[in-house]
Design goal:
This protein is 42% helix and 15% strand. The protein is an alpha/beta fold and 333 residues long. It has one domain: Luciferase-like domain (TIM Barrel).
């Protein structure tokens, strides 16, 4: 079997009773822990107007994490490009790449990463920016290109730097775009697994080689809760399920301690919605995880797996990173 890279998506989620400083410190501790474990990268998300998530200033967090690590690539999962001017992003990531050479990724998404009212505030009442996503991606590529030297608008730092651009998505639209532009593609199965198979097939079938990428590169983001025993992993996963229940019912909450049964137990509508939203969630010890992850890797021909880590206890969260490394040692062995 081909070698499968493994990485982490970090949202800097607040735990119950903690604040944003605690969440960022926890994210940094996790990054330092995985830095020497063979993980490929850590990406930071972009969310706005969400009380219990501290990843709003994504570029700032990327710089902070990169400064506290040495080996892993650090990037955006993603920059929600319609919220920003492509020139500003080119300058920000050009600066990051200049400080941390050969370690910065730029993952780009079309969604606002928030509600519509906040999106209007971010975009100064221009919600049409999402319709120009492809044009904005091409603008970014142009700002990074050496061929932009004669343009009246140039990105410094940024121009001429080799910063990998990724397309992120949770639908088939993003798959077509990534394929058309010949860019690596990351699919958000950790919260929107429904179109995973279709998107992967479209991406592979329609891929056009580019200067950045000669062959398709497909990464799947899933939820992984690893523990020394399967029972413990399932217990720890209740924190994730309870968090998603809050999202579904619009009663968002911080990450809380695990519960014997999910807080929505016995409410069929919520149970069904959470089960659907988290169907790409894998729990267990390395033996169980490696067998199950091999199936999804083969199903969609993935080159990389990225995982969230919604574990409440700090020590068990770090232990989970160790066990995920062991899982991929089995997969790649």
């Amino acid at each position: 079997m081909k070698y499968i890279n493994y990485s982490v998506l970090e949202l800097a989620t607040l735990c119950k009773g903690k604040n944003a400083t605690d969440a960022i410190n926890r994210a940094t501790l996790g990054a330092k822990h995985i830095d020497n474990l063979g993980y490929k990268r850590m990406w930071l998300a972009e969310h706005h107007n969400m009380e219990h998530i501290a990843s709003s200033a994504t570029s700032v967090l990327i710089g902070h994490i990169a400064n506290h690590t040495k080996n892993i690539r650090v990037g955006s999962g993603g920059i929600m490009l319609p919220n920003h001017s492509p020139l500003i992003i080119a300058e920000q990531f050009g600066t990051l790449e200049s400080i941390y050479p050969n370690r910065i990724d730029l993952g780009l998404g079309r969604a606002p990463g928030t509600d519509q009212m906040t999106a209007m505030a971010l975009r100064r009442n221009n919600l049409n920016t999402a319709f120009y996503f492809k044009d904005d991606v091409l603008s970014l590529k142009r700002y990074f290109s050496k061929e932009n030297i004669n343009s009246k608008v140039r990105a410094f730092p940024g121009e001429g730097l080799d910063i990998p651009i990724w397309i992120l998505g949770s639908s088939t639209d993003s798959a077509y775009l990534a394929a058309e532009l010949g860019l690596p593609y990351a699919f958000a199965a950790h919260f929107a697994p429904k179109m995973l198979e279709s998107a992967s097939q479209i991406y592979k079938d329609h891929f056009i080689p580019s200067d950045q990428l000669k062959e398709p590169y497909f990464m799947v983001c899933v939820n992984i809760i690893a523990a020394d025993s399967n029972d413990e992993a399932e217990f720890l996963a209740s924190s994730l399920y309870n968090l998603f229940a809050g999202i579904i019912t619009n009663h968002r909450m911080p990450l809380s301690a695990p519960t014997e049964k999910p807080i929505y137990h016995g409410i069929p509508e919520i149970e069904s919605a959470v089960n659907s939203m988290t169907s790409s969630t894998f729990t267990g010890n390395p033996a169980k995880l490696s067998a199950e992850l091999k199936q999804i890797i083969n199903l969609v021909d993935a080159q990389e797996i990225m995982t969230t880590n919604y574990i409440f206890d700090d020590e068990k969260r770090l232990r989970s990173f160790d066990l995920i490394k062991d899982t991929f040692s089995m997969i790649n062995g």
